[in-house]
Amino acid sequence: MVPFLDLTRQYKRIEEEILSATKRVYEKGRFILGEEVSAFEEEFSHYCGVRYGVGVDSGTDALQLALKAAGIGEGDEVITVANSFIATALAISVTGAKPLFVDIDPETYTMDPNALEHLLRRRKKKGERQKIKAILPVHLYGHPAEMDVIMDIADRYNLVVVEDACQAHGAEYQGRKVVSFGLLSCFSFYPTKNLGGYGDGGMVVTDDKKLFEKLRLLRCYGEKRKYKHILKGGNNRLDEIQAAILRVKLKYLDQWNEERRKKALIYKGMLDGSGVLCPVEKEWAKHVYHLFVIRTKKRNSLQVFLKEKGIETLIHYPIPIHLQKAFRESGYRRGDFPLTEQYAREILSLPFFPEMTESEMKEVTTQIKTFIRAEVTPACQQAGANHES
Ligand SMILES: Cc1ncc(COP(=O)(O)O)c(C=O)c1O
Known about the structure:
Layout: H1 7-28, H2 35-48, E1 52-56, H3 59-69, E2 77-81, H4 87-94, E3 98-102, H5 113-125, E4 132-135, H6 147-157, E5 160-164, E6 172-173, E7 176-177, E8 184-188, E9 202-206, H7 209-218, E10 223-225, E11 228-229, H8 240-271, E12 285-286, E13 292-295, H9 299-308, H10 338-346, E14 347-350, H11 358-374
Parallel strand pairs: 2-3, 2-4, 4-5, 5-8
Antiparallel strand pairs: 1-9, 6-7, 6-12, 8-9, 10-11, 13-14
Helix pairs in contact: 1-8, 2-8, 3-4, 5-6, 8-11
Pyridoxal-5'-phosphate (PLP) binds at residues 58-60, 84-85, 87-88, 138, 164, 166-167, 188, 190, 200, 202.
């Protein structure tokens, strides 16, 4: 049996520290917005190279609060990708704005800057550009989107950039942490993330003091002082317990990311010549491999084969957002984003985590090679090879 992810192995590495951190919270008896959250906000924003951090209850709420803080709302439009977890687009919808999608870069699977520019030019001609207020790139699987080019486009069209770094803790673009480019950047601390708590959690980071202050109001009933509410905020706070746990884990994030990077290289070496396509790390990127996602035209049968051999795999994500029922009203159709749709049929996330053993990796890759050898048509290699339905 090779699990997709085993968080108990990570816990064993840091058990004593976690127990003493949570005990500290119980003993203080303060569970909401206390010293742990403040300290973690400071430590994590510092790690990101950004001045301020606001701890919130999830990555989804980090995104929707960041958009709201930036003034995005009813009638606005925000450009993002359909190749992401649905929360990226849901967060836009929750503000009352509409998500507009663009296709992805064939190598990084993140927002294609050419497609972005193309959409903006097209909308400019039709005179509808005024509704578009922001760009929301996603650093998918831990690989950065091409931030210089996206920021240049945003500057030229006077658009706000909010980064979705929910899968990219520690990732870098040209030697700089990805989240230091946009006006606001958002993280998830969902348990499976590179930095994950023992429950839900998230953070918005920014260099802008006014936005920081607004976010602190938005996450806590819009409360300026006790029972003095100056805007309509919600209850979107990060818990003290989660902050205490995340402070322990933050100390190990770089080490664990390095372990992921080393393991990704090992996987790539083992899969060399196998016929499946491995993730690419662009020369300007530091990939943190939240996921290790391969591609093959025989994805469905490979997944079944691996399952029979006791190897767990997942698909991130099988249905692009624009084709989800929840976004039917947005009017997109099959064929609108060809690469996103093609990749959704071909991608497969292999078991991958820092504590994974080399023998487990060997087992996964040996079984993949056995499957590919048994296939008549090598996956993803021959042009025109039929997809599975
Ligand atoms: C790219 C992306 N955006 C947003 C989210 C939402 O984060 P959360 O699950 O913490 O709400 C996730 C989490 O899975 C994600 O992967």
